Amino acid sequence: MIPSVLPTYSRAPLHFVKGEGSWLIEEDGRRFLDLGSGIAVAALGHSNPVVVDALTEQAQKLWHVSNLYEIPQQQALADMLVGSTFADTVFFTNSGTEATELAVKMVRKYWYEKGQPDRVEIITFTGAFHGRSSAAIAAAPSEKMVKGFGPLLPGFHQVPWGDMEAAKAAVSDKTAAILVEPVQGEGGINVMPDADMKALRQLCDETGTLLVLDEIQCGMGRTGRLFAHEWCGVTPDVMLVAKGIGGGFPLGAVLATEEAASGMVAGTHGSTYGGNPLGCAVGLAVVGAITAEGFLSEVQRKSALLRQKLEGLVAENPEVYESVRGSGFMLGIKCKASNTDVLTAAYAEELITVPAADNVIRLLPALTLSEDEIAEAITRLDKTARRVVKGA
User: Fold this and answer.
1) Smaller CB count within 10 Å for the chain: N or C?
2) Cβ-contact 330, 360 below 8 angstroms
3) DSSP calls for 114-128
4) pTM for the full model?
5) How far apart are CA 43 and CA 204, in angstroms?
6) For residue 169, what is the domain's CATH number?
7) How many CB atoms lie within 10 A of CB 29?
8) Contact 85/255 with Cβ under 8 angstroms?
9) Are residues 279 and 310 in the same domain?
10) Range of the domain at 333
């Protein structure tokens, strides 16, 4: 008999009832060091007082009115994001998947309004993950994502990750945009080199193609800058944001230049819940904290310390761990042992990690992770490796 919750998840037998910073408390009282933060969502940790206060204060006033009316919290958050990024305008969603859907509509509508309605194709890269809607799985058509869900939405052309010549060859007079993650998360923590990011920007400039960056997982301070693309000095035309922006509250956004968004006028898109007072009050608290003076420099310092200690951990456990990759607090350990075995052994050591492709475990801790917690993480990862070797 089918369970009451649709069985689309393979869940670990853990029942967390409370969160405190970088820690999750199981109902039996065990305390787990959380290096997953809800898949890069709890950017300020669990139950952060700044976020709790913002949520509580707004919840006592007004939760929802719909986008039929002006929403001051939404305007304030949009102004904050515009003031901190390349963008001229923002549309708020409830999730990253919804942000992907709007980005697809936005770039196609842009060319339609320019009198080139045939420019509908979007170039993406192998290993990508842009969500689980019909458009998102068409953009990143791995077998597990698309099998049984056809026919796929047409208009997507995928090229090999890191192959700039293939990307250049794929651009035609039908190309609307190039969509890419500066750091692939689900794909195994693959960082696009600065030179490749710059090459994509140049290619888009030369062909008029729009550059769309998916920073749903790698954005909001995760790499040590507010957004990952800032490291290479390249700016997109459209950017997808979610996960960390709400600190655990469902919130996403599409940021765009005035030019890229020029086709999106009244009636072309909408959302019942997106940008409601409650979500945007939380978003204001999260973005305000991340952009506060000194916060991101501390993320850079502490993430460099974690990276250094992880390199030592890998060197000391070569039969289990192979290498470290990533940027900031978006790190991956490529495993020699099965990453599933490592993940399970880590649970036994009361440590949370996140699996990814290419036999990688992801480390996506709260940006507030302390030095003592970094040391504890290394200790538990070392014990995890010993447990894997023993086959326990």
Assistant:
1) N
2) no
3) TT-TT--EEEEETT-
4) 0.96
5) 32
6) 3.40.640.10
7) 7
8) yes
9) no
10) 16-34+294-390
